[in-house]
Amino acid sequence: MKQTNLASKLEKLATSTLVSSLTGIQRGIEREALRIQPSGKIAKTPHPEGVGHPLTHSSITTDFSESLLEFITPVSTSAEQTLSQLRDLQKYTLANMGDEMLWPMSMPCFIEDQQDIVLAQFGNSNIGKMKTLYREGLKNRYGSMMQAIAGVHFNISFPESFWLALQESEQDNSELQNFISNKYLGLIRNFKRELWLISYLFGASPALCSSFLQGKESNLPFEKQGKGTLYLPHGTALRLGDLGYTNSEQSSLKVMYNSLTEYVAGLQRAIRCRSDLYENIDDFHAETPKQLNKNILQIENEFYSPIRPKRNAKKHETPTQALSRGGIEYIEIRALDVNPFSDTGISIEQIRFLDVFLTYCLLKDAPEMSWEEQQISDQNLQSVISTGRDTSTLLKQGEEQVTIAQWGNEIFTELKEIAELFDAAHGNSDYSDTVHHLATWIENPDNTFSGQLISSLLANGGDASEQALDIATRYKNEHLKTDFQYYCEADLDKQASQSFEDEKAVAANDALSFKAFLKDYFEKA
């Protein structure tokens, strides 16, 4: 068998320094979860006061809607510790939610009317009001239903020892941060090329409640189950498709990932370019504003991408200003559905796979990616979203049409070699075991998350909502019975109390009116 470029590269990289550095990979997880009533309908109550203030609590906040909680773990080099933190945060929140539960799916529960989706509230400080007005803009641009969709974000960074060993092996003499940024951009390009695999394996939104469409027609070939469940027989991740959070104008911006300068310039164009679509929606200059501004993107966070380069921003910095100042610090993966088979929404097996897959994306050759190639990769993703478990589905790989099994087996052959490096670093076979297990899903689509969900749905003959409500009830009971693993209740009580004091301080420090604050913000952006 011919040795691949990656295999020959790995022979040079398999030094004790680089291998041992893999234990220093840092991760953080942001898990979104919709609050629901015992009936399975969306909760209409405010953010649970007992868990703290959503503006200033570092670990428990809200996302787009008041009922969409977000749990944020601290950065950690231990995947097991990260999951323990996530489990504790959910346990603590559930204990402060009365009889409400956490919806275990990405696509939302039954929602009778979009007015039931209340925008997230962050208090009366200027920054708090800006966050809510931003969401008001999202509502008026895309509709409120989008704001009830949940996902899991996976953040990863490689340690300096890894970068130094990699740079030495490649005999690269550039400034270290430039080397790191360029390698992360290569990771992003390769991830986008093969993102379809994440949707195939871990897509967990092949079905939705018909209330999500609010009576609108869809071009997707849905089949109906039970009272109101719509599903795609071979679908994987409706959340990542056109039903999810998309901006039709964003594609015209042609944001590219071949250099940091190019990426930053693309995003900055978007936040400065007026939009004909949103011109008639009142912005912050109006007496009753309905959006922050009339640009294609109100702020950079509105840009939808399944993967983002990131750097922790300083006070008053925008994301692209932080990147321009210091280069890429870590990568945020935004393509994961909530895993309904895990009480934390993501499993240890997924984390190990992502470690391997992202390292593979980083180490393999990463040629520049044209806009046309980006579109092809998106078309591949959309094919998998709609018909990924149909073995006859074809994807475009270069100039060829290949099956998911053909391309998937090629990828897993190389992932197995990366997994062996991780096993050597950790002194066990956990990573190889994970990769070998998931490799079997390529030939057996029913084993994927979406396959398991559809099989269960059809076997039970009911609605997906009944399936989800049973899971939500079970997870709540299990969380409340389980002891805290990382935090203690007193510490979380203290964090909650401190967050209210911190929010008061933020509001007290406001020196400008809200309108003047926004004017100053956008002049500096």
From TrEMBL:
Gene3D superfamilies with a match to the protein in the record: 3.30.590.20
UniProt GO molecular function: ATP binding; glutamate-cysteine ligase activity; metal ion binding
Domain Glutamate--cysteine ligase: 11-384
InterPro entries in alphabetical order: Gln_synth/guanido_kin_cat_dom, Glu_cys_ligase, Glut_cys_ligase
Pathway membership: Sulfur metabolism; glutathione biosynthesis; glutathione from L-cysteine and L-glutamate: step 1/2
Gene Ontology CC terms: cytosol
Single biological process term from Gene Ontology: glutathione biosynthetic process
EC number: 6.3.2.2
PANTHER family reported for this sequence: GLUTAMATE--CYSTEINE LIGASE
Family of the protein in this entry: Belongs to the glutamate--cysteine ligase type 1 family. Type 1 subfamily.
Listed name of the protein: Glutamate--cysteine ligase
Gene field: gshA
